[in-house]
User: What shape does this take?
Amino acid sequence: MQTPDNQTTSFFQSTTAKMILVGLLTLALLIPLEFVKNLILERSQRQSEVISEINDKWGEQVFLYGPILKVPYTDYEETVAVDAKTKLAVTQKTAITNYAYFFPEQLKATSKVTTKTLNRNNYESAVFSADMQFSGNYIRPDFSSRAIPNENIQWDKATIVIQTTNLKSIRNEMKINLGATALAFQPVYESEGTVATPQTAEAKDEAITDRLETGYFDLSKFLANGQADFKFNIAYNGSQQIKMVPIGKTTQLQMQSNWKSPSFTGNFLPEKQITATGFTANWKVLHINRAFPQQFFDTLPDLSRYAFGVDFVIPVDQYQQNERASKYGFLVIGLTFLIFFLIQSISKINIHIFQYSMIGLALIMFYTLLISITEHSSFTHAYLISAGAVIAMIGLYSISILKNKKFPLFISLALTALYSFIYVIIQLENYALLVGSIGLFVILGAVMYFSRKIDWSK
Assistant: This one.
Protein backbone atom coordinates (compact mmCIF):
# COMPACT_ATOMS: atom_id res chain seq x y z
CA MET A 1 0.00 0.00 0.00
CA GLN A 2 1.36 3.46 -0.97
CA THR A 3 1.80 6.16 1.60
CA PRO A 4 0.69 9.74 1.06
CA ASP A 5 4.38 10.72 0.76
CA ASN A 6 4.85 8.20 -2.05
CA GLN A 7 1.75 9.55 -3.78
CA THR A 8 3.14 13.12 -3.59
CA THR A 9 6.50 12.07 -4.97
CA SER A 10 4.80 10.20 -7.77
CA PHE A 11 2.78 13.28 -8.74
CA PHE A 12 5.80 15.57 -8.94
CA GLN A 13 7.51 13.08 -11.17
CA SER A 14 4.54 12.91 -13.52
CA THR A 15 4.29 14.57 -16.91
CA THR A 16 1.49 16.80 -15.68
CA ALA A 17 3.58 18.17 -12.79
CA LYS A 18 6.50 18.87 -15.11
CA MET A 19 4.20 20.67 -17.52
CA ILE A 20 2.87 22.84 -14.69
CA LEU A 21 6.39 23.71 -13.49
CA VAL A 22 7.56 24.59 -17.00
CA GLY A 23 4.44 26.69 -17.51
CA LEU A 24 5.00 28.57 -14.24
CA LEU A 25 8.63 29.14 -15.16
CA THR A 26 7.55 30.54 -18.53
CA LEU A 27 5.24 32.99 -16.77
CA ALA A 28 7.98 33.92 -14.27
CA LEU A 29 10.35 34.76 -17.12
CA LEU A 30 7.89 37.38 -18.30
CA ILE A 31 9.14 39.55 -15.40
CA PRO A 32 12.74 39.94 -16.70
CA LEU A 33 11.33 40.18 -20.23
CA GLU A 34 9.25 43.16 -19.08
CA PHE A 35 12.40 44.76 -17.65
CA VAL A 36 14.01 44.37 -21.07
CA LYS A 37 11.00 46.06 -22.72
CA ASN A 38 11.32 48.93 -20.25
CA LEU A 39 15.01 49.22 -21.13
CA ILE A 40 14.14 49.48 -24.82
CA LEU A 41 11.51 52.13 -24.03
CA GLU A 42 14.01 54.07 -21.92
CA ARG A 43 16.61 54.04 -24.71
CA SER A 44 13.94 55.06 -27.22
CA GLN A 45 12.93 58.01 -25.03
CA ARG A 46 16.56 58.99 -24.73
CA GLN A 47 16.82 58.91 -28.52
CA SER A 48 13.79 61.23 -28.77
CA GLU A 49 15.39 63.65 -26.31
CA VAL A 50 18.69 63.72 -28.22
CA ILE A 51 16.91 64.17 -31.57
CA SER A 52 14.89 67.02 -30.06
CA GLU A 53 18.13 68.67 -28.90
CA ILE A 54 19.74 68.25 -32.34
CA ASN A 55 16.68 69.63 -34.12
CA ASP A 56 16.36 72.52 -31.71
CA LYS A 57 19.90 73.67 -32.51
CA TRP A 58 19.79 73.04 -36.26
CA GLY A 59 16.17 73.96 -36.95
CA GLU A 60 12.74 72.55 -36.21
CA GLN A 61 9.74 71.68 -38.35
CA VAL A 62 8.69 74.18 -41.00
CA PHE A 63 5.08 75.30 -41.28
CA LEU A 64 4.12 78.11 -43.67
CA TYR A 65 0.80 79.94 -43.81
CA GLY A 66 0.95 82.94 -46.15
CA PRO A 67 1.47 85.43 -47.66
CA ILE A 68 -1.81 87.00 -46.58
CA LEU A 69 -2.98 90.50 -47.44
CA LYS A 70 -4.14 92.34 -44.32
CA VAL A 71 -6.27 95.46 -44.83
CA PRO A 72 -7.64 97.52 -41.93
CA TYR A 73 -11.04 99.18 -42.11
CA THR A 74 -13.02 101.47 -39.88
CA ASP A 75 -16.17 100.15 -38.29
CA TYR A 76 -18.53 101.71 -35.80
CA GLU A 77 -20.05 100.40 -32.62
CA GLU A 78 -23.32 101.90 -31.50
CA THR A 79 -24.00 102.27 -27.80
CA VAL A 80 -27.10 103.68 -26.14
CA ALA A 81 -26.58 105.92 -23.13
CA VAL A 82 -29.06 107.89 -20.98
CA ASP A 83 -28.31 111.58 -20.64
CA ALA A 84 -28.15 112.43 -16.93
CA LYS A 85 -29.83 115.82 -17.37
CA THR A 86 -32.47 115.21 -20.01
CA LYS A 87 -33.06 111.57 -19.13
CA LEU A 88 -33.24 110.85 -22.85
CA ALA A 89 -31.56 107.92 -24.58
CA VAL A 90 -28.65 109.01 -26.75
CA THR A 91 -27.06 106.80 -29.41
CA GLN A 92 -23.29 107.12 -29.62
CA LYS A 93 -21.03 105.82 -32.36
CA THR A 94 -17.48 104.71 -31.57
CA ALA A 95 -15.00 104.22 -34.38
CA ILE A 96 -12.95 101.03 -34.13
CA THR A 97 -10.41 99.48 -36.46
CA ASN A 98 -10.96 95.92 -37.66
CA TYR A 99 -8.97 93.88 -40.14
CA ALA A 100 -9.81 91.91 -43.24
CA TYR A 101 -7.56 89.13 -44.54
CA PHE A 102 -7.37 88.23 -48.22
CA PHE A 103 -5.61 85.24 -49.76
CA PRO A 104 -3.74 85.25 -53.10
CA GLU A 105 -5.50 84.50 -56.34
CA GLN A 106 -2.48 82.50 -57.54
CA LEU A 107 0.21 81.00 -55.30
CA LYS A 108 3.14 79.14 -56.83
CA ALA A 109 6.08 77.71 -54.90
CA THR A 110 9.19 75.78 -55.83
CA SER A 111 11.35 74.22 -53.16
CA LYS A 112 14.74 72.54 -53.30
CA VAL A 113 15.45 70.56 -50.15
CA THR A 114 18.91 69.18 -49.36
CA THR A 115 18.82 66.63 -46.55
CA LYS A 116 21.41 64.93 -44.38
CA THR A 117 21.64 63.14 -41.05
CA LEU A 118 23.27 64.59 -37.96
CA ASN A 119 24.68 62.17 -35.37
CA ARG A 120 25.29 62.46 -31.66
CA ASN A 121 26.71 59.38 -29.94
CA ASN A 122 24.52 56.51 -31.15
CA TYR A 123 21.60 58.65 -32.30
CA GLU A 124 20.84 60.38 -35.58
CA SER A 125 18.29 62.87 -36.86
CA ALA A 126 17.22 63.83 -40.37
CA VAL A 127 17.71 67.55 -41.05
CA PHE A 128 17.44 69.67 -44.18
CA SER A 129 18.19 72.99 -45.80
CA ALA A 130 15.27 74.25 -47.87
CA ASP A 131 15.36 77.04 -50.46
CA MET A 132 11.78 78.06 -51.26
CA GLN A 133 10.66 80.52 -53.93
CA PHE A 134 7.12 81.92 -53.97
CA SER A 135 5.22 83.96 -56.52
CA GLY A 136 1.62 84.86 -57.19
CA ASN A 137 -0.83 87.74 -57.25
CA TYR A 138 -3.63 89.43 -55.35
CA ILE A 139 -6.79 90.85 -56.87
CA ARG A 140 -8.60 93.88 -55.52
CA PRO A 141 -10.12 93.01 -52.10
CA ASP A 142 -13.88 92.75 -52.04
CA PHE A 143 -15.59 94.23 -48.96
CA SER A 144 -19.13 93.99 -50.37
CA SER A 145 -20.08 91.03 -48.15
CA ARG A 146 -19.79 93.34 -45.14
CA ALA A 147 -21.23 96.39 -46.93
CA ILE A 148 -18.19 98.43 -45.93
CA PRO A 149 -18.00 101.72 -47.86
CA ASN A 150 -14.76 102.48 -49.69
CA GLU A 151 -14.05 105.56 -47.59
CA ASN A 152 -13.88 103.35 -44.47
CA ILE A 153 -11.15 101.15 -45.95
CA GLN A 154 -7.65 102.17 -44.87
CA TRP A 155 -5.87 101.31 -48.12
CA ASP A 156 -2.73 103.16 -47.07
CA LYS A 157 -2.21 100.94 -44.02
CA ALA A 158 -2.26 97.55 -45.73
CA THR A 159 0.34 94.95 -44.76
CA ILE A 160 1.30 91.42 -45.77
CA VAL A 161 1.39 88.67 -43.14
CA ILE A 162 3.10 85.27 -43.02
CA GLN A 163 2.47 82.81 -40.21
CA THR A 164 5.37 80.39 -39.88
CA THR A 165 7.50 78.37 -37.50
CA ASN A 166 11.24 78.08 -36.99
CA LEU A 167 12.06 81.80 -37.28
CA LYS A 168 15.49 81.33 -35.70
CA SER A 169 16.61 79.09 -38.57
CA ILE A 170 15.63 81.35 -41.48
CA ARG A 171 18.83 81.92 -43.46
CA ASN A 172 18.01 84.98 -45.55
CA GLU A 173 16.65 88.51 -45.21
CA MET A 174 12.90 88.31 -45.55
CA LYS A 175 11.55 90.68 -48.21
CA ILE A 176 8.58 90.46 -50.54
CA ASN A 177 8.52 92.23 -53.90
CA LEU A 178 5.07 93.66 -54.51
CA GLY A 179 5.23 94.89 -58.06
CA ALA A 180 8.56 96.72 -58.23
CA THR A 181 8.57 97.60 -54.53
CA ALA A 182 10.48 95.56 -51.94
CA LEU A 183 8.78 95.32 -48.55
CA ALA A 184 10.75 93.98 -45.58
CA PHE A 185 9.19 91.55 -43.12
CA GLN A 186 9.59 92.05 -39.41
CA PRO A 187 8.75 89.58 -36.62
CA VAL A 188 5.71 90.61 -34.59
CA TYR A 189 5.29 89.73 -30.95
CA GLU A 190 1.75 88.68 -30.10
CA SER A 191 0.61 88.07 -26.54
CA GLU A 192 -2.71 86.65 -27.72
CA GLY A 193 -2.18 86.16 -31.44
CA THR A 194 -4.39 86.70 -34.45
CA VAL A 195 -4.82 83.02 -35.22
CA ALA A 196 -7.81 81.34 -33.66
CA THR A 197 -6.98 78.76 -31.01
CA PRO A 198 -7.16 75.25 -32.51
CA GLN A 199 -9.56 72.79 -30.97
CA THR A 200 -7.56 69.58 -31.20
CA ALA A 201 -4.20 68.66 -29.71
CA GLU A 202 -2.85 67.73 -33.16
CA ALA A 203 -3.88 71.07 -34.63
CA LYS A 204 -2.42 72.86 -31.63
CA ASP A 205 1.01 71.33 -32.25
CA GLU A 206 0.93 72.34 -35.90
CA ALA A 207 -0.37 75.86 -35.29
CA ILE A 208 2.30 77.07 -32.89
CA THR A 209 3.49 79.82 -35.25
CA ASP A 210 5.23 83.17 -35.24
CA ARG A 211 4.11 86.12 -37.33
CA LEU A 212 6.08 88.06 -39.90
CA GLU A 213 4.54 91.29 -41.15
CA THR A 214 5.58 94.08 -43.51
CA GLY A 215 5.29 97.77 -42.76
CA TYR A 216 2.37 99.85 -44.05
CA PHE A 217 1.98 100.45 -47.78
CA ASP A 218 -0.72 102.00 -49.95
CA LEU A 219 -2.42 99.02 -51.58
CA SER A 220 -4.49 101.16 -53.96
CA LYS A 221 -1.31 102.15 -55.80
CA PHE A 222 -0.50 98.53 -56.56
CA LEU A 223 -3.99 97.67 -57.82
CA ALA A 224 -4.14 100.09 -60.74
CA ASN A 225 -4.39 97.14 -63.15
CA GLY A 226 -6.77 95.18 -60.94
CA GLN A 227 -4.12 92.90 -59.51
CA ALA A 228 -0.78 93.08 -57.69
CA ASP A 229 1.97 90.56 -58.38
CA PHE A 230 4.32 89.40 -55.65
CA LYS A 231 7.35 87.17 -55.19
CA PHE A 232 9.67 86.33 -52.33
CA ASN A 233 12.28 83.76 -51.28
CA ILE A 234 12.76 82.06 -47.95
CA ALA A 235 15.55 79.69 -46.88
CA TYR A 236 15.20 77.44 -43.84
CA ASN A 237 17.35 75.08 -41.84
CA GLY A 238 14.83 72.59 -40.55
CA SER A 239 14.13 69.02 -39.55
CA GLN A 240 11.57 66.28 -39.93
CA GLN A 241 8.81 68.11 -41.80
CA ILE A 242 7.79 70.85 -44.26
CA LYS A 243 4.11 71.80 -44.50
CA MET A 244 2.19 74.69 -46.02
CA VAL A 245 -1.44 75.77 -46.21
CA PRO A 246 -2.91 76.01 -49.75
CA ILE A 247 -4.32 79.54 -49.43
CA GLY A 248 -4.17 80.43 -53.11
CA LYS A 249 -7.31 80.16 -55.18
CA THR A 250 -4.96 77.97 -57.15
CA THR A 251 -1.97 76.68 -55.16
CA GLN A 252 0.93 74.90 -56.82
CA LEU A 253 4.00 73.51 -55.08
CA GLN A 254 6.93 71.73 -56.71
CA MET A 255 9.46 70.12 -54.39
CA GLN A 256 12.74 68.41 -55.23
CA SER A 257 14.94 66.66 -52.67
CA ASN A 258 17.73 64.12 -52.29
CA TRP A 259 15.78 62.30 -49.54
CA LYS A 260 15.08 58.75 -50.71
CA SER A 261 12.23 57.80 -48.38
CA PRO A 262 9.76 60.70 -48.10
CA SER A 263 6.40 60.39 -46.38
CA PHE A 264 3.79 62.66 -47.90
CA THR A 265 1.42 64.04 -45.33
CA GLY A 266 -1.68 66.19 -45.09
CA ASN A 267 -4.96 66.41 -46.98
CA PHE A 268 -3.51 66.51 -50.48
CA LEU A 269 -1.21 64.00 -52.16
CA PRO A 270 1.15 65.01 -54.97
CA GLU A 271 2.11 63.57 -58.29
CA LYS A 272 5.46 62.13 -57.31
CA GLN A 273 8.52 60.33 -58.59
CA ILE A 274 10.82 58.59 -56.09
CA THR A 275 14.20 57.22 -57.14
CA ALA A 276 17.36 55.99 -55.44
CA THR A 277 18.73 59.55 -55.52
CA GLY A 278 15.71 61.41 -54.15
CA PHE A 279 12.22 62.52 -55.15
CA THR A 280 10.25 65.17 -56.98
CA ALA A 281 6.67 66.01 -56.04
CA ASN A 282 4.06 68.34 -57.53
CA TRP A 283 0.91 69.50 -55.78
CA LYS A 284 -1.97 71.47 -57.31
CA VAL A 285 -4.80 72.47 -55.00
CA LEU A 286 -7.86 74.44 -56.13
CA HIS A 287 -10.04 76.54 -53.84
CA ILE A 288 -12.91 74.09 -54.36
CA ASN A 289 -10.70 71.31 -52.94
CA ARG A 290 -10.63 72.86 -49.46
CA ALA A 291 -13.38 74.01 -47.14
CA PHE A 292 -12.52 77.68 -46.56
CA PRO A 293 -13.03 80.91 -48.52
CA GLN A 294 -10.51 83.39 -49.90
CA GLN A 295 -11.16 86.07 -47.31
CA PHE A 296 -11.80 86.41 -43.59
CA PHE A 297 -12.87 89.33 -41.47
CA ASP A 298 -11.79 90.25 -37.93
CA THR A 299 -9.87 87.05 -37.15
CA LEU A 300 -7.41 85.02 -39.16
CA PRO A 301 -8.41 81.40 -38.41
CA ASP A 302 -6.22 78.38 -37.79
CA LEU A 303 -6.11 76.40 -41.04
CA SER A 304 -3.32 74.00 -40.15
CA ARG A 305 -5.56 70.97 -40.59
CA TYR A 306 -5.64 71.74 -44.34
CA ALA A 307 -1.84 71.84 -44.65
CA PHE A 308 0.11 69.41 -46.81
CA GLY A 309 3.77 68.56 -47.17
CA VAL A 310 6.53 66.02 -46.59
CA ASP A 311 7.97 64.23 -43.57
CA PHE A 312 11.74 63.75 -43.63
CA VAL A 313 12.18 61.01 -41.04
CA ILE A 314 14.54 58.07 -40.60
CA PRO A 315 12.57 55.29 -42.37
CA VAL A 316 13.51 52.43 -40.03
CA ASP A 317 13.71 53.14 -36.32
CA GLN A 318 16.02 50.63 -34.61
CA TYR A 319 14.17 50.98 -31.31
CA GLN A 320 10.84 50.24 -32.95
CA GLN A 321 12.37 47.07 -34.40
CA ASN A 322 13.75 46.09 -30.99
CA GLU A 323 10.37 46.73 -29.41
CA ARG A 324 8.65 44.57 -32.03
CA ALA A 325 11.21 41.80 -31.47
CA SER A 326 10.66 41.86 -27.70
CA LYS A 327 6.91 41.39 -28.19
CA TYR A 328 7.68 37.93 -29.52
CA GLY A 329 9.71 37.05 -26.40
CA PHE A 330 6.92 35.02 -24.82
CA LEU A 331 6.49 33.06 -28.07
CA VAL A 332 10.24 32.27 -28.29
CA ILE A 333 10.44 31.16 -24.65
CA GLY A 334 7.25 29.11 -24.85
CA LEU A 335 8.17 27.32 -28.07
CA THR A 336 11.76 26.64 -26.93
CA PHE A 337 10.52 25.13 -23.65
CA LEU A 338 7.97 23.13 -25.62
CA ILE A 339 10.73 21.68 -27.81
CA PHE A 340 12.77 20.67 -24.78
CA PHE A 341 9.68 19.24 -23.07
CA LEU A 342 8.76 17.14 -26.12
CA ILE A 343 12.34 15.85 -26.36
CA GLN A 344 12.26 15.05 -22.65
CA SER A 345 8.97 13.18 -23.02
CA ILE A 346 10.01 11.25 -26.12
CA SER A 347 13.56 10.36 -25.04
CA LYS A 348 12.76 9.85 -21.30
CA ILE A 349 15.72 12.13 -20.48
CA ASN A 350 15.10 14.05 -17.28
CA ILE A 351 15.62 17.85 -17.57
CA HIS A 352 15.71 19.70 -14.23
CA ILE A 353 13.72 22.88 -13.73
CA PHE A 354 17.02 24.70 -13.03
CA GLN A 355 18.22 23.76 -16.50
CA TYR A 356 14.99 25.14 -17.98
CA SER A 357 15.69 28.36 -16.04
CA MET A 358 19.18 28.69 -17.53
CA ILE A 359 17.78 28.19 -21.03
CA GLY A 360 15.08 30.78 -20.37
CA LEU A 361 17.59 33.35 -19.12
CA ALA A 362 19.74 32.75 -22.20
CA LEU A 363 16.68 33.54 -24.34
CA ILE A 364 16.12 36.77 -22.36
CA MET A 365 19.76 37.73 -22.88
CA PHE A 366 19.09 37.75 -26.63
CA TYR A 367 17.10 40.99 -26.27
CA THR A 368 19.66 42.80 -24.11
CA LEU A 369 22.36 41.82 -26.61
CA LEU A 370 20.14 42.96 -29.47
CA ILE A 371 19.46 46.45 -28.09
CA SER A 372 23.06 47.06 -27.00
CA ILE A 373 24.64 45.91 -30.28
CA THR A 374 22.03 47.73 -32.38
CA GLU A 375 23.12 51.05 -30.88
CA HIS A 376 26.60 50.49 -32.34
CA SER A 377 25.63 48.75 -35.57
CA SER A 378 22.63 48.04 -37.76
CA PHE A 379 19.63 46.07 -36.53
CA THR A 380 20.30 43.27 -39.01
CA HIS A 381 23.91 42.79 -37.87
CA ALA A 382 22.87 42.97 -34.23
CA TYR A 383 20.11 40.41 -34.81
CA LEU A 384 22.49 37.98 -36.52
CA ILE A 385 25.13 38.29 -33.77
CA SER A 386 22.64 38.04 -30.90
CA ALA A 387 20.71 35.14 -32.38
CA GLY A 388 23.91 33.28 -33.29
CA ALA A 389 25.34 33.72 -29.79
CA VAL A 390 22.16 32.52 -28.05
CA ILE A 391 21.69 29.55 -30.40
CA ALA A 392 25.32 28.50 -29.88
CA MET A 393 25.03 28.83 -26.10
CA ILE A 394 21.79 26.83 -25.87
CA GLY A 395 23.05 24.24 -28.38
CA LEU A 396 26.26 23.60 -26.41
CA TYR A 397 24.34 23.56 -23.13
CA SER A 398 21.90 21.05 -24.63
CA ILE A 399 24.73 18.61 -25.36
CA SER A 400 25.55 18.39 -21.66
CA ILE A 401 21.85 18.02 -20.76
CA LEU A 402 20.76 15.52 -23.41
CA LYS A 403 24.03 13.53 -23.56
CA ASN A 404 24.05 13.29 -27.37
CA LYS A 405 24.38 15.50 -30.44
CA LYS A 406 21.25 14.53 -32.34
CA PHE A 407 18.76 16.42 -30.16
CA PRO A 408 20.97 19.52 -29.64
CA LEU A 409 21.38 19.76 -33.42
CA PHE A 410 17.61 19.62 -33.82
CA ILE A 411 17.18 22.29 -31.14
CA SER A 412 19.74 24.56 -32.81
CA LEU A 413 18.01 24.18 -36.18
CA ALA A 414 14.61 24.82 -34.59
CA LEU A 415 15.86 28.00 -32.87
CA THR A 416 17.48 29.16 -36.11
CA ALA A 417 14.18 28.70 -37.94
CA LEU A 418 12.27 30.45 -35.13
CA TYR A 419 14.56 33.50 -35.02
CA SER A 420 14.54 33.68 -38.83
CA PHE A 421 10.75 33.55 -38.82
CA ILE A 422 10.52 36.40 -36.28
CA TYR A 423 13.07 38.50 -38.22
CA VAL A 424 10.97 38.17 -41.37
CA ILE A 425 7.83 39.24 -39.48
CA ILE A 426 9.63 42.29 -38.05
CA GLN A 427 10.73 43.41 -41.52
CA LEU A 428 7.26 43.02 -42.97
CA GLU A 429 4.57 45.62 -42.35
CA ASN A 430 1.62 45.01 -44.65
CA TYR A 431 1.94 41.20 -44.52
CA ALA A 432 3.20 40.73 -40.95
CA LEU A 433 -0.14 39.46 -39.62
CA LEU A 434 -0.67 37.09 -42.55
CA VAL A 435 2.83 35.60 -42.43
CA GLY A 436 2.72 35.38 -38.63
CA SER A 437 -0.63 33.58 -38.63
CA ILE A 438 0.51 31.07 -41.27
CA GLY A 439 3.78 30.47 -39.41
CA LEU A 440 2.05 29.85 -36.08
CA PHE A 441 -0.38 27.48 -37.81
CA VAL A 442 2.55 25.49 -39.23
CA ILE A 443 4.26 25.42 -35.80
CA LEU A 444 1.08 24.18 -34.13
CA GLY A 445 0.77 21.45 -36.76
CA ALA A 446 4.38 20.35 -36.16
CA VAL A 447 3.83 20.21 -32.38
CA MET A 448 0.68 18.13 -32.83
CA TYR A 449 2.56 15.75 -35.16
CA PHE A 450 5.58 15.16 -32.90
CA SER A 451 3.47 14.85 -29.74
CA ARG A 452 0.92 12.40 -31.15
CA LYS A 453 2.60 9.28 -29.69
CA ILE A 454 3.40 10.65 -26.21
CA ASP A 455 1.56 8.92 -23.39
CA TRP A 456 0.21 11.84 -21.37
CA SER A 457 -1.34 9.61 -18.71
CA LYS A 458 2.01 9.00 -16.96
